[in-house]
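Dear support,

I submitted the protein below through the web form. The confirmation email said the job was done, but the results page showed an empty box. After a refresh the structure appeared. I'm attaching both so you can tell me whether what I see now is the final result or a partial one.
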Amino acid sequence: MRDNGYSPRISVLIPTYKEKDSISSTLETVSRELQATGNLSYEIIVLDDHSCDGTVEEALRYAEKCDGKIRVAEFSTRMGKGGSLRNGLRLARGQIVVFLDADLPVEVGRIAEMVRLFERGYGLVVAKRVYLEGGSYGLSRRVLSLGFNGLVRAFFRTGVSDHQVGFKAIRIDIANRLIDQVRTDGFFFDAELIVQVKRMGVRVKVLDVLWRDRRMPGDSRIPPMRALITMLADLVALRVSFVNGKRLIKLREDYAGVLRDLTNGVTVKATRLYFSTRNRRFLRLLSKIYFLVLFGRTD
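What the results page shows now:
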C-alpha cells in the first residue's frame, strides 16, 4: 500500500497487544533514536492486534504530535504476532522493513547499522541476542529456546542460531514476495520467515545485539508453554510440507477481517494462510483450536 507519495527509507513495524501503559514511551524512544540518525527517512507503523484496552487511543494521541511519521492501524479480530506482521506489510512504504518488539529489548540505534548492511547486498538482517541481566527471560525459557532453535536448524539447516528474535530487517521486495508464502500467524512466524528467505537464496546477515527483556516475570502476554506447543506444531507442519526443497502442500488464503489504518483512513483486507483443503469448515475449526491453545480464546 503506497499513499500520500511519501517513500521513506525504512518502515518500522511494531506489533502490539495490550501495551497501553508503555506504547507512548516506546514511540517516543523509537522516534528519538531514528531522528538522531540525521539522514534516515522513516515511518513507524503500530499494528495493534485487537487489544481493546486503550493501546490504540494512546498510540493515536502520540502520533498526532509527529507530523505523519507515525501511523496506527488495528485489526478487527485477533491475528497473532505473525498475522499482524504479515498483513501489516501491506501498509509499509519503506524500501526496508524493520520488525521491532513493542517492549524495546534492544538499542533502536542499531537500525542504522542494519541499513548499512543492506548496502552490502544482504536481503535480510537478523539480530542475535546477547543477553543482559534482568527481565522475564529466565533459565527455563532460555533452555526451551535453545532446544527449539536446535530443532529448526536440524530440520531446515538455516545456519541461524536464534530464529525467534523480534528484531530483524528485510528488503521490501523480498517481504512482498513472502506475504503469500509465510503461513504461520503465531510466534513461529519469525522462524518461518528465515526459513523461507533462505529457500529464496537471499543473503542473510546475523547481527549481535545487546538484549534486555524489559518485562518482569509474569508479565508475558502468552504463557511460554502455550507458545512452545504452537511453535512445535508449526515447525512439524512446515517440515512435512517440504521435501527436497519443494513445497508439497499448497496454501490457501482465507478472509480474516480487516486492517484499518486509523491515521489516514486506509482499510485493507486481512487474511490467514492455511495448508490447502476444500473443506473451509475444517480450516476454521483448526484455526479456532490453534488460537484457543495459543491465546486461551478464539477471537
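Response: this is the final, complete result; the empty box was a page-load delay. The two ends are 26 Å apart (CA to CA).
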